[in-house]
Design goal:
By secondary structure, the chain is an alpha/beta fold. The protein folds into two domains: about 180 residues, Flavin prenyltransferase-like (Rossmann fold, 3-Layer(aba) Sandwich); about 210 residues, CoaB-like (Rossmann fold, 3-Layer(aba) Sandwich). It contains 13 helices and 19 strands. The strands form five sheets. It has an eight-stranded mixed beta sheet with strand order 12-11-8-13-16-17-18-19, sandwiched between helices. It has a five-stranded parallel beta sheet with strand order 2-1-3-4-5, with helices on both faces. The protein has a two-stranded antiparallel sheet with strand order 6-7. α9 packs across α13.
Length: about 400
């Protein structure tokens, strides 16, 4: 017997970004979800009812008075596995925070006992207004996942935070929240920092020393943390991947740039996960112009010096209660080297995996052993990098001190 399709209510409020929700709807339906679109009345000014009905294959209504015999204002929320509002305008966030029930979408939000996700989209001034920030805090305190908007081009010529994230990344949030169900918000109220990618150390304007890291594992960690309710700062080095929805992405290049960004973000972080491949060495000097190849002559040796050890510095300067997680890419004596590194770096956890040609870097899957400072060892069989990310956060969450009541 096949399991029923996950039931998703896609709420759409009245913002210009409503057109992006069409792509989110398509991804949900094509991946086997049963989606009912519930727009606000004004949202239909941006995208009409025929579009939503055609893409979802279901009737669309914004009124509590349609199909009254079926009590839709109660049944939709009661039967949903996920309610996902995209875009969520400042007005919709305010009405949801106040518990208003003046249309089908807000009544659905009040009756929902499943996970609820809001994807805000509005102008920067509206997003940063104290009223909106208070409404977001209220919704998060009640158990909703309110993801951070992206920064970028807004309506007209304005730019800044407030842009609806890419629909493909919103779909990933929906998928992760559905997979975890009611247990998904164990990182709510937490700030986590994740590093990703590989640093590059410049030799001259066109050459560098680097590594094979793609950033896929770090980005999987960021996505899963967002879905579990965390505020996520993602420090990324040389990654050609779309920004995970809800994460604050800080772009860096070299090890020193990453060090500054990570230490700055870690000041108030509950956990720091160093998934990036940080170059151990950099050229002692930088050539301001391209090094020329001389006919018949061997190139001058490039002298290397050590880069800062970011993980060790985090272990030395951590604030009380902060959980530090490192990654160790090893080619031989994997566990022995991992145990030594765990102690040397003063980390709480160390994710150890074997690397090499066609292994780990750039691949969608990973296998690892997560070593704990308490002597534990959690083996993670080869599987999607998201699966490893979930286990890492499980282990982190178990080590976090309880949040103090405010």
């Amino acid at each position: 017997m096949t399991s029923p399709k996950p039931r998703v209510v896609l709420g759409v409020s009245a913002g210009i970004a409503a057109y992006k929700a069409c792509e989110l709807l398509r991804r949900l339906t094509e991946s086997g979800h049963d989606v009912t679109v519930v727009p606000t009345e004004d949202a239909l000014r941006f995208v009409g009812e025929p579009t939503w009905a055609a893409l979802s294959g279901r009737p669309v209504s914004s009124s509590v008075w349609d199909g009254v015999a079926g009590v839709p204002h109660v049944r939709l929320g009661q039967s949903a596995d996920l309610v996902f509002v995209a875009p969520a305008t400042a007005d919709l966030l305010a009405r949801a925070a106040q518990g208003l029930a003046d249309d089908l979408l807000t009544t659905t939000l009040l009756t929902a006992r499943c996970p609820v996700v809001f994807a805000p989209a509005m102008h920067t001034e509206m997003w940063e207004h104290p009223a909106t920030r208070a409404n977001v805090a209220t919704l998060r305190a009640r158990g909703a996942v309110v993801i951070e908007p992206a920064s970028g081009r807004l309506t007209g010529t304005d730019t800044g935070p407030g842009r609806l994230p890419d629909p493909a990344e919103l779909f990933e949030v929906a998928r992760h929240v559905l997979a975890r169900g009611a247990a998904g918000r164990d990182l709510a109220g937490r700030h986590v920092v994740v590093s990703a990618g590989g640093t590059r150390e410049a030799i001259d304007p066109v050459r560098f020393i680097g590594n094979r890291s793609s950033g896929l594992q770090g980005y999987a960690l960021a996505r899963t943390a967002v879905a579990r309710g965390a505020r996520v700062t993602l420090v990324a080095a040389n990654v050609a991947l779309p920004d995970p929805a809800g994460a604050d992405v800080v772009a860096t290049g070299s090890a020193e740039e990453m060090r500054k960004a990570v230490l700055s973000a870690a000041g108030d972080a509950d956990a720091v996960v160093m998934a990036a491949a940080v170059a151990d060495f950099r050229p002692a000097g930088y050539h301001g112009s391209k090094i020329k190849k001389a006919d018949g002559a061997e190139p001058e040796p490039i002298r290397l010096v050590k880069n800062p050890d970011i993980l060790a510095e985090l272990g030395e300067t951590r604030r009380p209660g902060q959980v530090i997680v490192g990654f160790a890419a090893e080619t031989d004596d994997v566990l022995a080297n991992g145990r030594a590194k765990l102690a040397r770096k003063r980390s709480d956890l160390l994710v150890v995996n074997q690397v090499g040609e066609e292994m780990t870097f750039g691949r969608p899957d990973n296998a690892a052993v997560v070593l704990g400072a308490d002597g534990s060892a959690t083996e993670v069989p080869r599987g999607p990098k998201e699966a490893l990310a979930e286990i890492v956060w499980d282990l982190v969450a178990a080590r976090l001190e309880p949040l103090s009541p405010d």
